[in-house]
Structure formats: C-alpha cells, structure tokens
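Re: the request from the purification team.
They wanted to know what the chain is likely to look like in 3D before they choose a buffer screen. I agreed to run a prediction and write the result into the notebook, where they can find it.
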Amino acid sequence: MLVICNGMYRSGSTLQYNLAREAIQLCGGEALGFYTAETFEEHAEFLSKRASSEKYFILKMHDYVPLDLSDFYYDGVRILYTFRDLRAVVLSIKEKLDYSLDAAFLMVDEALMTELSLINFEYILLQQYEVFYRREVDMLQGIIDFLGIDVSSCAVTEIADKHSVESTRTAQGHVGGMRKFLHRIKLKWPFRYIFKASDQTTLLHFNHISRFAGVIDSWKVGLQASEISLIEQRYLSWLIKKGYELNGD
C-alpha cells in the first residue's frame, strides 16, 4: 500500500506525515521521503509496485497527486490530507518564507488547486488543523483507523509525545548551522532549494514552527486588518464552506 501525505502548506501536514510514518515503520513499513508531481510521475512504475504491495510505504508531497496515470495501481493508494484556516496559512507562509502577501496568495492558490484535484478520491482522510491542534494522540489514532494498521495504545502515546510542539521545537533546532546561514542571507533559487534546511527523516526545517507556535488564532494578531480583509475577500467561499467565521462576524 502507498500512503501519500498531501496536506496543504503550513497546515500540520509534516506532523501528519511524521505520525503516520512512525506508525507505519513500527509495522514494518518504509518511508520514501518527499516527492514532487514531477518525481512522482518519473517514478510511477516504482510507486505503483509499492501501492500493490502488502507492505506499507509512505511519502510526502504538496503538489497535486497524478491520479490519471495509466497502469497505476490506485486501489492501493491512501491519501492523508490536512487543511487549515487560510488566514493562518497565509501568516505562516509569510513568517517562514519571508514572502509578500501576493506571493503567499500564489502558494495558497496552488494548494487549493491541489485540494480540488484530490478531494473526491475514494480513499482519503481529511484532518482539520484546528480540530487536532495539540491533540496528536487523536490525530494519530484517526490515521491508524483509516489505514487499518495495528499499533498499541502505548506506542500511539509515545509517537504522539515525540512529535508534540515542544519536541518538534527541539528537533528543528538540530538542523545544521550552515543551512540556517544560507536561509538568512536569502539565497536565491535554485540554490535555496538545494540547501534547504530540512531533516531528511522528519522533513522538518530549522524554522518549521514559527514564533506563533501554531496557535490557532495567531492570524488575528499576526496580520494587519487590511491583510485579513483581502484574504477573506479572496477566499470567501472556501472559508465559509469549511465553517470558518469571518473576522467581522
């Protein structure tokens, strides 16, 4: 089986990946790391074989999942997806990547196109950031139930504790100093990508958790009123559909 963590940017997708990865590896499965749409298609035969295996394999990506490849064994694919209040997503993108509002909008637009492409896939688990914030045990249990794997309650608690906000802050501090330096001097593409400060097991960056520590309503203090208004205007239908209250309500 091939498990694809394909959550929205800055919505707890790396947390979801690491919780699922640890559980899958505990059951003898294997982590395949990070993929783009291009590398997914390039390795389609390899991945299709993993999807048809009784063994569990897991990968993470943010791009759209190619769901129309010929001869791909999609019956063995399970998708894990996270989403979050887009106002918080925009703030988090700005904080982490030092992006302008317009640049953050482009990333969110791309994320919503990805969501649209996979939301009706038959085997998909949707997990909302606000529901599972600081509730890693519940989030992991939902993943385990969805995938149908056997993990003891003790192991669930241990994995969840390992990936709490506090533990993740400690882990992200261990990423190399040279990569932090390259990030601070705003190294340009493609070198910024090549020297990306990420751990190849957890896929954590040195600044993965922002100064707001993922607090649900951080956008209320981190964004200007004019920015909040622009975000709500641009993504009004999505916010309403997902049940998020508007700032003026």
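For the purification team: The CA atoms of residues 39 and 69 lie 13 Å apart.
Please add any questions underneath this entry.
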